[in-house]
Design brief:
The chain is mainly α and 197 residues long. It has one domain: Arp2/3 complex 21 kDa subunit ARPC3. Pfam families: ECF_trnsprt.
Length: 197
């Protein structure tokens, strides 16, 4: 009976959060904050919550949903020149998002054994997963599209690494702080619901 309830709970949470991911991608301000050139995101928080609540595998599934949905949006509703070459590339659009789910789930499992408080494990894993998204996306942009991207944002290619590092220290840190605050609150509530069913 418990296994059946657990399976139903998992399916319901996956379904609800998949719908939330899709809505966040397509509805302005719900998933991305319009601060060009890259638009900081809060969608990673949904992926982190799934990884902490349901496990690494489900987090990676939701992460892939995020990436695929972002690619679909780039093809069907391009909002900027960046959509035409950054977000239509599955290496940039999908792989970092799957890794968000992996890092969140893996780090949480490791941290649970090292910290006495579950909330500490959630905070650390949320920060690491959030920074994974930022660093991976920016790193892949630099490696794959460095010169084209530098030209698009009107920066000399020799200065691009410094510009991207600044984005990590501003947008990236802001996203990580948001994840560290919001993800544990939501995940804790979902975990309590799961154990009280």
């Amino acid at each position: 009976m418990y296994q059946k309830n657990r399976s139903a709970y998992r399916t319901a949470i996956l379904g609800i959060l998949t719908a939330i991911i899709i809505i966040q991608n397509f509805v302005p301000l719900l998933g991305y904050i319009p601060i060009p050139p890259l638009n900081p995101t809060i969608i990673h928080i949904t992926v982190i919550v799934v990884s902490i609540t349901l496990g690494t595998k489900d987090g990676m599934i939701i992460g892939s949903v995020w990436g695929i949905t972002r690619m679909i949006k780039a093809f069907t509703m391009p909002a900027s020149p960046f959509d035409y070459f950054l977000w239509r590339n599955p290496i940039i659009a999908i792989i970092p998002r799957i890794l968000v789910g992996f890092v969140a789930g893996y780090a949480y499992n490791v941290c649970k054994k090292r910290f006495s408080k579950d909330s500490t494990a959630m905070i650390v894993s949320s920060v690491l997963a959030s920074l994974t998204n930022t660093v991976m996306v920016l790193g892949l942009i630099y490696v794959i599209y460095g010169e084209a991207y530098a030209s698009l944002i009107e920066v000399d290619y020799s200065n691009l690494l410094g510009v991207l590092a600044t984005v990590v220290l501003t947008n990236g840190v802001g996203e990580a702080i948001a994840a560290a605050i919001i993800a544990p609150i939501i995940a804790r509530s979902l975990k309590k619901f799961s154990t009280n069913k």
